[in-house]
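anyone seen this seq b4? input:
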Amino acid sequence: ASAGLSFIAGAVTQFAAGNFTGKLSDIVLIQFAGSFVNHFLPFSVGGVNLTAQYYQKHGRRQAEAITMASIPIIFGVMTTVIIVAIVSPITLTHFLGRFHPSHFNMWVVGPIIAATVIGIMTIGRFWHRVRELLIETLAGLKGIVEVRRLALLTAGSIGITASMSLALLASIHAVHGSIALVAVFVIYVTSSLVSNIAPTPGGIGATEAVIVIGLVAAHLHLPEAAASTVIFRLLTFWLPFIPGSIALRYLKKSKTV
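predicted toks r here
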């Protein structure tokens, strides 16, 4: 349920970022379809392009459409970092300070090495495109001054973070683990930031490694941390693959994008 709510919150955020262009129901479908496309492309490029196509069909210029589609990502990162800095007394540095080298093994180190190698191989190919998106989006953020849009962008970003944090907490409880909610929040936020910048589709490898490291640092046993991570990623990344593929097929068939 929490994972599903994150898609609704994401749609609200995108609807506000797009200055209420089109229909909210279409944006919800695009969120699911975008999650499907992002399984194959890094940096959420696929989802951004899909959303931008939708705005172009509604008469927006290409640059403007790309900016609208990219704003939720940048705005989400900004608001999340601010919330963590204000609310949470736990930081990634504190986690790493508590993490003993003996906790490392190939289950943790392997994904990090794999993600790093893939990143080195692909970052040159995608960096130019990502840099353009960042420049255009930051320029678009300067133009958001309407209170209603800012409120919905903020509420949507917080909603995504809250629902996904609860999904991670539920995954931990599913394996009978127990850590503080604020720790879960910081672990998810950190993994989310890594997922957005990792040069692998959906942040595969790097995201899982960060979650496992964070959970172990929060004194969860490694088997519990690994199992919780598998459940969380299954529910929030792999399971939406099915409705995402259906949504993409429907959008293409109806020529919505």
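DSSP finds eleven helices and no strands in the chain. The mean pLDDT is 80. kinda curious what u guys think
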